[in-house]
Amino acid sequence: MTERHNNDNFPGYEKIKTILNESPDLMCRKLEVGQEGIHIIFMKNLIKPEILNEYVIKYIEELSIEYLHYTYLMKNIPIEEIKVNLEEQEVISSLLNGFAYIYFLDEKKAFIVNCANPIERSIEKAETESLVYGPKISFTESLTSNVKIIRQNLNDYNLCTDEIKIGERVQKQIRIVYIKDIANDDTLQTLKDRIKQLSTDNIIDSSVLAQCLEDNHYSLFPQFILTELPDRFIYSILNGRIGVFIDGSPVGIIGPANFFSFFESTEDIYLRWSLSTFIRFIRLFAMVGSLFLTAIYVAAMTYHFELIPSKLLIIIGQSRSQVPFPPLLEALLLEGLIELLREAGARLPSKVGQTMGIVGGIVIGQATVEAGLTSNILIIIVAFSALGAFSAPIYEMGTAVRIARFPIIILAGVWGLNGIIFGICILMVHLLKLTSLNKPYLAPLYPLRMKDLQYFLIRLPHHFYMRRPLINRPKDSIRLKERLRNITDLDEF
Amino acid sequence: MKKIVILLCSLLCTACMAPEKIIEMQGISTIIGFDLLDDNTYKGTISLLQFDRKEEKTSVTLSADGTTSKQIRQKLEEQTSHDITSGQLRTILFNKNMAETGISSFLDTMQRDSLISSLIFLAITDNAEETINNTNYEEYPEMGSYIYQLLDKHEKKEMLVNSNLHDFITTQYEIGIDPTLPIIKNANGVAPSIDSVALFKEDKIVGSISLINTLYIKLFTNNKAFLGDITVEIAAEELEKRGMAELNLPKSDIYKITLHPIKYKGNIEIKNEELVHLNATISVSTLEFQPSISVKNKDSLNKMEQLIGEALNKEFGYILEELKNLNTDPIGIGRKIRSVRKYSHLTEGDLRQKYSALKIKPNIKVEIKRTGSVD
């Protein structure tokens, strides 16, 4: 709260009414106390009437006459958040945010108090990223409660939540969340600069913001992790990453991200290391399979039947012989069908979704094979690919894999295995060039950081994690000082 | 823009791509057999895997006559609606008559064909066409798969000396060693089986040796092979002569012992131009004595080892004699001689001449490491 009384240009009720296009919600409570006329102007639906009645109107009415002036009220009104020295624009936007505008007719001065009553969803279980173990809490649409959740779970005075406002028409609050003595300054600066450079009408959601902040807008791959899990958010921040919240979105943005971070889940930390490592490998394997398996089928069927083991050859050959299409068309048909199923399943209400799964999976799958439109081997492969793509813990990565599959299938159909290799080359070149907040995307594989491999490819028992991953370039890279000292002692011993 | 141009240029690569071979349009040959007809014409028989809509049968055999393998192929191609491809070709059969006249001209064209793996099996049979048309195999979709499985099993267990195209061609062209190939027996009413091993002189078949006896060859050519169990017969009087009568052996004229080799080591030792020692040590465990005796003390065990060694040497001597008569050298003694610096000038002809006059002394030692083990 700063006190500068250089602005006497406070708008009156009439003016506000004109600016707000005579909104029927705009209310003005005209108080006549003593000689002073006080107007309390507010938007009817946006304020909490109890606050206004109890702490504003009642308070003013109970004051004796000598205190009824701007300076005293401004200093003593029992409401936590008030704003003085206002621009006209700010008055309007605050009114629209649920503030009440208290205007002193004689003095022609005013201030505003917060009586907001935002609509909030209660905190619920995470829907898109579900866990077996670990906290089930998820972010909500309210920025305040999101920050509250983070603060509650990460009680560190170095936790910063810097505020930036963006949006020309609809101003939105953005919070950049990081730990001051861990997060890398350059990365933080890059992120802040990028946010400040955005000039947009309105940012609807954090996923939109993430897209605007990306290094390469044309890439298939997401360059920020979007998560609705506070524990994942906190874990990333503690490892030197930077988080971003935007008002009205239940999803936090985490950056810089690398390719492998899309395949880790917080559950990997909760589960025992052996299982976690195994699961991580399964995810990576599933991703690779999902990308290339259908393509390999197409290539083998079209060009390289020599590669098929003799015993498999007969099974595949028999089921292929029923199919009237070339393998490329067959594969695209079935892949398209699966995508269609997924899309229909996602759009339908959950009760109908069940039926959809049965209709799609069993009826269509069975029927296409029996009708001889596809071979049953391909059904298995396509189902595996679909499962593989969904196994990525971050939905965005799953979608990227699903999209990347199609060009590779077409390449396989046109050039066989050579085409697949060509596709892999292009993919690799792209991934190698890609950065996220100027940090290499394929790290820690390229550039190779041996010490960081344990963070992203595998999961070791917890006492191996005494440092933070170096690829985020944390200022304070040591995580467990006590432990570290003990172990170095042991070494000397 | 540059990137797009580069990507577009890559489309030119389509010209380099091999033509499409969609699986159900292929007649996938798994085995091909050649028979010699009269006056330089050959009969080629081929077993094809082909997949037809709504048909249980997945294989077809075709035959055609011709003077070269490619002509045969051309004629075979006329008989089927599928493209005949050799990407899954696993076995080539030759009939004996053909092998007597030499098979290298046929192998040369196979070797150069990039679609034919150099690891495909070669085998000799009496009549390739009949072997391929034999229907007495179980659980296999067609003959090619069956014979492949048969040969593959023997190859994997190292029971055959060498039988693939690559081995055959290298041993054929290498000076001082001759190739061998399995002989597949095809009798009426039973599935084809491996009968014996053909001995070659250059690319012409000259004789054969039983599958069990190939152990003597394997001893010196392959140090990781599976020798197979060895059964030796020892006359009772031999035992008595060595003073093993006190063992109270049961009365029998001939004692038979089956041994299971554990490991072995063979070495060709060139003494001089006329004398070659074939030294080998085989560690064995005894599996079976007929009639059963128990050899417990060390002394009689040593004597037993000696006796077995002598019996093996005797048999190996006969085999070597036969090899010399046939003038074929599957063990590679000539190669070993030639590897000695002072003999490295010797040509193929010189070696062949020398070989028949060569004195070869077999010297196999047997060590019984374990007794009474169970197979």
Strands, helices and their partners?
The complex is a heterodimer of chains A (493) and B (375).
Chain A: H1 13-19, E1 26-33, E2 36-43, H2 49-62, H3 70-76, E3 82-83, H4 88-96, E4 99-104, E5 109-114, H5 143-153, E6 159-166, E7 172-179, H6 185-197, H7 206-213, E8 225-227, H8 230-238, E9 242-246, E10 252-255, H9 267-270, H10 273-302, H11 310-320, H12 327-347, H13 350-371, H14 376-390, H15 395-433, E11 435-436, E12 439-440, H16 453-456, H17 481-492
Antiparallel strand pairs in A: 1-2, 2-4, 3-5, 4-5, 6-7, 7-9, 8-10, 9-10, 11-12
Chain B: H1 2-10, E1 26-36, E2 42-49, E3 59-66, H2 69-78, E4 83-85, E5 91-95, H3 96-101, H4 104-112, E6 121-125, H5 128-133, H6 143-156, H7 165-173, E7 180-185, E8 193-201, E9 204-210, H8 214-221, E10 230-235, H9 236-241, E11 254-270, E12 275-290, H10 298-326, H11 333-339, H12 348-357, E13 359-371
Parallel strand pairs in B: 1-4, 1-5, 5-6, 6-7, 12-13
Antiparallel strand pairs in B: 1-2, 2-3, 7-8, 8-9, 10-11, 11-12
Describe this structure in words.
The complex is a heterodimer of chains A (493) and B (375). Chain A is of the alpha+beta class. Chain A has 3 domains: 13-114, no CATH class; 121-257 and 461-493, no CATH class; 279-439, no CATH class. Chain A is 48% helix and 13% strand. Chain A is built from 17 helices and 12 strands. Chain A has helices at 13-19, 49-62, 70-76, 88-96, 143-153, 185-197, 206-213, 230-238, 267-270, 273-302, 310-320, 327-347, 350-371, 376-390, 395-433, 453-456, 481-492, and strands at 26-33, 36-43, 82-83, 99-104, 109-114, 159-166, 172-179, 225-227, 242-246, 252-255, 435-436, 439-440. In chain A, the strands form 3 sheets. Chain A has a 5-stranded antiparallel sheet with strand order 1-2-4-5-3, with helices on both faces. In chain A, strands 6-7-9-10-8 form a 5-stranded antiparallel sheet, with helices on both faces. In chain A, α10 (273-302) runs antiparallel to α14 and α12 (327-347) packs antiparallel against α13 (350-371). Mean pLDDT of chain A is 86; it is low at 1-6. Chain B has 2 domains: 23-211, no CATH class; 224-371, Nutrient germinant receptor protein C, domain 3 (GMP Synthetase, Chain A, domain 3, 2-Layer Sandwich), CATH 3.30.300.210. Chain B has 12 helices and 13 strands. Chain B has helices at residues 2-10, 69-78, 96-101, 104-112, 128-133, 143-156, 165-173, 214-221, 236-241, 298-326, 333-339, 348-357; strands at 26-36, 42-49, 59-66, 83-85, 91-95, 121-125, 180-185, 193-201, 204-210, 230-235, 254-270, 275-290, 359-371. In chain B, β8 and β9 (204-210) form a beta hairpin. Chain B has 375 residues and is α/β, with parallel strands linked by helices. Chain B is elongated. The chains are: A alpha+beta (493), B alpha/beta (375). The A-B interface holds A 300-306, 308, 310-311, 313-314, 316-318, 320-323, 326-327, 372, 414-416, 418, 422 and B 10, 13-14, 17-18, 20-24, 26, 28, 30, 49-55, 58, 85, 87-88, 90, 115, 141, 145, 148.
